[in-house]
Design brief:
Helix content is 42%, strand content 16%. The chain is an alpha/beta fold. It has a seven-stranded mixed β-sheet with strand order 3-2-1-4-6-7-5, with helices on both faces. The structure holds uridine 5'-triphosphate.
């Protein structure tokens, strides 16, 4: 059996005006599917946050806002499914069991969020656990984990590796509200830890993902010691 690789794709890729980028990703996933089985989780990105902030201003509760975010991530997943055509499982699964069944088809699986109260990062970790993936690649709009925000501090230093417990202490002060989950959330870290999932945070571009799949990865590895 081909090894399964779980890839969280940043929601930022789906909000782009151009239609080319997503097609390039689709081509890459089709090519990669000869050596591994990609299981992809689409993020919600700006569009999810737009809906969430509108609905929040009308007084919707947090779990309803999470559900809005999930719906947007599922729409994003469908965009990628269209681009993958018959190489993809035809619809985004709605729960972990369905993800496992979809993965058994051998096709490329693309899903969005599954449960309120977490981010697509946590969902991706749960999926990696469920399908016994050999790696979890969190492809995001930054190229790894830094000691401070690289968008605000030009001297920020990138870690090649970071122990999970250090990442956890960096995240404790983070918001846990709809649309506000960051690079990783606490649920994702718990799952990575308990199932010892090989996890890496890296830039969401085709070249970077290709290197990771071919065994010369960039970005930041999360270590379990
Ligand atoms: P994301 O995880 O995509 O957040 O889900 P994001 O901040 O846009 O991440 P990037 O930019 O893709 O990396 C959007 C929102 O959908 C809800 C949460 O409210 C989340 O902030 N969501 C998503 C859930 O409640 N459960 C899920 O399983 C996934």
């Amino acid at each position: 059996m081909r090894k399964r690789i779980v890839i969280k794709l940043s929601g930022s890729l789906f909000g782009l005006e151009d239609t080319k980028t997503l097609k390039q990703f689709a081509e890459f996933f089709v090519k990669s599917s000869k050596i591994c089985q990609p299981i992809i989780i689409a993020g919600g990105g700006k569009i999810a946050r737009h809906y969430i902030s509108h609905a929040r201003s009308s007084g919707a509760d947090e779990s309803t806002l999470d559900e809005l975010g999930i719906e947007v991530s599922r729409l994003n997943a469908r965009l990628l499914i269209f681009a993958l055509q018959e190489k993809a499982y035809p619809h985004p699964p709605t729960n972990l069991k369905e993800v496992a069944n979809a993965a058994d088809s051998g096709l490329i699986v693309v899903t969005g969020g599954l449960h309120p109260g977490q981010s697509t990062n946590a969902t991706a970790a749960l999926i990696a656990e469920k399908v016994r993936a050999s790696a979890f690649l969190n492809a995001t709009d930054v190229d790894g984990v830094y000691d401070s925000d690289p968008r605000k501090n030009k001297n920020a230093k990138k870690f090649k590796k970071i122990p999970l417990k250090n990442l956890r202490s960096m995240l404790v002060h983070q918001d846990s509200v709809a649309g506000g989950y960051d690079l990783m959330d606490i649920v994702a870290l718990k799952v990575i830890e308990r199932s010892k999932i090989k996890t890496r945070i890296l830039k969401a571009d085709v070249k970077t993902l290709e290197k990771a799949i071919r065994g010369s990865p960039e970005g930041t590895e999360i270590t379990l010691v």
